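Input for the complex:
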Amino acid sequence: MTFGVFSSVTLLFDFWDVHSPAGMVLSVLLVLLLALFYEVLKVWRVWLSGSQLAVRAPACTPPPSVHSESASMLEGSPETSLAPVELHTSGPNSWLLHVIQTALHVLQVVLGYMLMLCVMSYNTWIFLGVVLGSVLGYFLSFPLLDQMQSFRLV
Amino acid sequence: MDHMNHTPLQAEPTPNHHHTHVQPTTAHNHGGGDSGGGHMGMAMTFNLNYLNVPLLFEGLLINSPGEMVAACIGVFLLAALYEGLKIGREVLLRRSQVNVRYNSMPVPGADGTVLMETHKTVGQRMLSSAHFLQTLLHIIQVVISYFLMLIFMTYNGYLCIAVAAGAGMGYFLFSWRKAVVVDITEHCH
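Predicted:
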């Protein structure tokens, strides 16, 4: 079991049999897209948990003055801000968001294991597909997350 | 040792043995057929066997539907525990950091307003009980995560579903509180 440049591989399922170069190209593309989707999914979940907070944003007390704003951000004293936020956790909206988050988490776990198994085929092309997909996904989606968050906060 | 003939092969996988599995035709023969017959050392594609499925240790060989159900429940609980452990560690870390933050003191500002001067020490001391606890929990977490990975690597459909379902259940139960805590520190201003 070492890495090699084979043109035939069986990935995950019996029916995913690859013998031809064309099939290999297609498989690598598919694996690349899976890895890309995995990275996007991670960012999407972070963004979702951000919007979860946007729902509860009115519960936060605004800073008393401009001067103490930076200090209160650093401080974030738990006792004072914990109480008002917790009041809003029982809403139906946040419950739905939590269910969605759970479903996405399961999807992420399964997808992560699938990608691991793909890498474990010890096929160099598939491995490169996974790595390239991760790189592309991270490269594309992380700036997107930053933009989305700054858009929402402003 | 009343295993089937093929089981000794899984103990020391020769390169030749694995090569036959990669070959499409033999892999098809192994995966298809009766759903109960797991007559190979290591599956290379997803299957729904419940006979002769090795699980992590030598003594843990699943050989009946009942044993498979028991293994699935065990794996489910392990995966749920793993999620709980991850979130629990985060909560513990945050709590120990909150303690550090209490050191900050109010300082009168230039124009009468009160400023909070924070001496924020991020991270913990190396020789503290909290850090030792974190280290211990980290070891447990790493071991469990490797076990879960190895369980998924059996390519057994039931066990994989149990891992995924356990992760979902654990996340659903434990992250409810985490969602609350995260909000405060990150964005409330």
